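User: Structure tokens for this complex, please. No commentary.
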Amino acid sequence: MYTNDNDPLHTMANEDANVLRIDLSIPTPVYRQIVDGLRTLLVHGAFKPGDRLPTVRQVAVDLAVHHNTVAQAYRVLADEGWLELRRHSGARVIERRRQSAGADSQKNFTQRLRELAAHAVAEGLDPKSIAGQLDALSGELNR
Amino acid sequence: MNMTPSEWAMIPAALFSWGTVAAAALITPRISRPDMFFAVTVHPSFRGSLAGRGIQRSYDRSVVALALISLLPVAFARSRIPWLGLAGMLAPMAVETAGWIGVFVAARKRTLPHRAEPSAEREAELLPRRVSLPGGWLAQAGPFLILGIVCLWLGLRWDGIPARMPIHWNLAGNPDGWSAKNPIAVFGSAIIGLLICSMLLVLWRSTMAGVRRIHGAGPEAIRSARFTRAMALFILGIEYWIALLMSLIGLAALRPDPTATLPAFWPILAAQTLLVASIFAIAYRTGQGGWRLGMASTAESAEGGGPPVGDRTPDACWKLGMIYFNRDDPALFVEKRFGVGWTMNMANPKAGLVLGGILLIAAASIAVSILIVKGGVSAGSQH
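Assistant:
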């Protein structure tokens, strides 16, 4: 189940480490969904440096989207330093240098997290459950 | 009734084809994915609903009635007029097939008002795809090795092949076509076998490389992998069957008495019947995409609510429920909506290449057959 990039908790419901999911019915552009989904998997260590990702063509066929959409997503992740793109051998996961977050990034994250938590509470989620899930997520990220 | 043994043998041959079509017509709608009903996306519970059962019953009745009606032309099989006799034998299958398409389209039309919007979710497994061939390359090479050994053996025993050799047998197993000994007549059947086996192998590999996987993970993906393996074994079995059949025809040139009856009709018919029965049994056991393997979990997921998953293709892109044409879909091969296996996206430019390749191999096989028959004409003029 894909939820948009304002919802980092969605990855916790994703029990399949190597599966990318998108939803064509939501307004988020498909390439964005692919970028977000793949980045989530990369952050959570589903792939190690040196691992190869499937070809643009294979992902496009499975998701039933245009090749260019997947290629664009791969390029974004390559620009972020996650992937190395090679003309004939597809995409390879590379060791990414740890980025130092600027003040803007920190502020932006805090704002989005607060909005997300407020949205979840408004939808009826128990604040304790939200806190528990954030703890679990923190544990996963620090592993 | 003064029928020759060959004419008698045509009856079980025609009944075999007739029975195959009738069985296929009755089985295929039952093995489609649970959320596909007469090539329309429906909620999985629709199949068991009053409307669903009504459509299925009506379809079954029509198929059975059609099968019985299509047997009527067999009465002409006794005709002394050769073309009418042949038509009487071929008509049941032709009438049955054409009628089946009509009955299927009618059932689809009745289902369309009940169609459900499929899920817009998509998933992709992010592991590089490898096309696995059951038994490895050795098992895959088997049919080619058999045909190659036959060619080698025929070459080594060239002097033992009579100057006038049989190239065709009637259904009673008596030779009714002859050719002068020449390389095409001797190696022709093995060459045709090699061409057909090559086509099946290439088609299988390109299908596996270009097909959409509907589920990226979970029990459905595991079932799908098991189904694909069963299909791979089935294709391999067909290749071995063709290789053996063509080898037998090729080796018939080495028989001490070329005019002797070839008692092959009944064993071949029995083997073909067994093969077709096995195909139906496997297809019924697995279901399209393997959904019948472990039905309990399928039923659970169907009851889970939500939109049906379907086959990740839009209903509107299926012409008569049989031909897939979608310019926006990069997939070259997609699951068929009834029966088991895959079909091509006819809007994909590569579909033309694949069809062209198949036609080229078919044309090459026909060309070899024509060359063999031409050899037969020259042989006929010599004798």
